[in-house]
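debug: dumping io for the single-chain case to check the tokenizer round-trip. Nothing else runs in this session.
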Amino acid sequence: MCLGIPGQVLDIVDDENSIAKVNVSGVKRNVNVGLVRPEGIAPGDWVLIHVGFAMSKIDENEAYETLKALHTMGEVYTDELKMFNSSQVE
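debug: decoded output
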């Protein structure tokens, strides 16, 4: 199962190709933010990530509530984080 997981934008690492480094529960990973660029995206913003793409921009409260709900899913969520961790940038 693939989940949409909240991540916080740390930096835009490749402006031309819309790539940002995000922090997802302690895992740093590059994701494509091209779909949310029209809304404006900057370090500190939160996005909902699915298969390497930021699908939508969310506010901090929504990010924390989503993370809280994901934690209740137990193994499904921890498996998803393991997959993220295996592709960790830093």
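debug: round-trip ok. The radius of gyration is 12 Å.
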